[in-house]
Amino acid sequence: MPFKKLHAHILETLERLKITTPTPLQRSSIPVIKSGSNTFCTAPKGGGKTTTLVLTTLQKLRCEAMGNAPRAVVLVENKEKALALYSTFLSYTKNNSLRVYVGYEELHIDIQKSEIFEGIDILISTPKAMKKLFLLNGINTSQLKLFSIDDAEFLNKSTDAGAVISITQSIKKCQYVVYSEKLHPQLKHFESYFMEHSKIIEA
Description:
The chain is α/β, with parallel strands linked by helices. It has a single domain, classed as P-loop containing nucleotide triphosphate hydrolases (Rossmann fold, 3-Layer(aba) Sandwich). Helix content is 39%, strand content 14%. The chain has 8 helices and 7 strands; from the N terminus they run ααβαβαβαβαβαβαβ. β5, α7 and β6 (175-180) form a beta-alpha-beta unit. It is globular and about 45 Å long. It holds the Pfam family DEAD.
């Protein structure tokens, strides 16, 4: 079964990248995420979690730039993963106007603040870097539509989990999607904070 009911830009990009058949996770999770539900997506390594994240983010933002404040945030474990995901997003946004920005602890916070202020649509960051942006009023979340966490196993570290909880408590209304290989107790614990009424998709 091919991908269906996605934005025309996304379908063109999938064709260009020769991605024709969704994985079991993509087949079951994309419609649920599109519906606006908070969602836990679990699948083994290579199950298509990151591609699902990219596709649903582009779909949510309708593949076009709008305003100056980020409308999607993706948290990852570290600089290496942030840059890798940034590269993946760029391969999908070549033919549309979406602006993707990547931040991490090693990049000076004042640089991040000024570059984000110029206008972005998608922010890729680490929990610590994002929390610092919040503390310094370096990010406007009033337009945020989608907040995703990729390979969320790293949140078993209490400091990162605490940073995520702190960040989400400052966001008024948003859809949350958490991707991991398994639904660990620490991740399930987020139901008490920002993953209310969440759906669980396992592949």
